[in-house]
Amino acid sequence: LRGRIIFTFCGDEENLGPDGAFYLREIGAVKPDMLVVGTQTENQLITAERGVMWVEVTARGRSAHAGNPDAGDNAILRLMRVTAHLDALMTERLRGRKLGDQQSTMNIGIFRGGENTNVVPERARVEIDRRLLPEEKVEEAFAEIEALVKAHPEADHLSCRLLTGTNGFRAPHEGPLVTALCASIASVTGAPARFLKDTGASDGRYFADDGIEIVNFGPGAGWQGHRANEYVPLDELVAATAILEAVVERVLGVG
User: In angstroms, rounded to a whole number, what is the distance separating the alpha carbons of residues 68 and 61?
Assistant: First the structure.
């Protein structure tokens, strides 16, 4: 045998949680040389995945009675101005950050503020989702947004903090894992492997900085994710099993 296979089953991938694959890597329970992440790819390959970063921007104001709003300082209005400013600048910057089918993006996902309708709000916050090309890094991406916030005319009433973030990855197509998967897919399905575009983020991101091959592969379609009645077609499940068995034979010499 030229190695061993480790299976992990983790349940907190959707909320970027720390208790699954991240924890197993942190305690040294898994130290892979190659990693196949079982995501829905219709038995094709995703070899490049964008990084993900969540940032919070908070605006502060001064509360007052809504009957006399001029006596206060509306944090929601301030945050609206800042958010519009950030969105305009980052949209222009990210337009040119593209490699193949992958595009850097930013999304305003949460906007919260105020405590009652009849009170001028003294605090409001927004949460931002940034998807990074594998060549971009979380540290630099956060510094970019933080610098724009600090340069805003109302910066004295603003704060910015990193909520969470992991880098992306890009596996070389000539690597042993990708090569084995391509050959196995072709032998089982009778058609050459296809390389798909990523949409979400997988548990592979926790190993993105380890210098290993990471590939997303599995039965089921990505467009079915986050929908009611998700399912995996039985024929794809059977084919995926045969493909992975063939990959083990090729990579580890187990037959």
Answer: 15
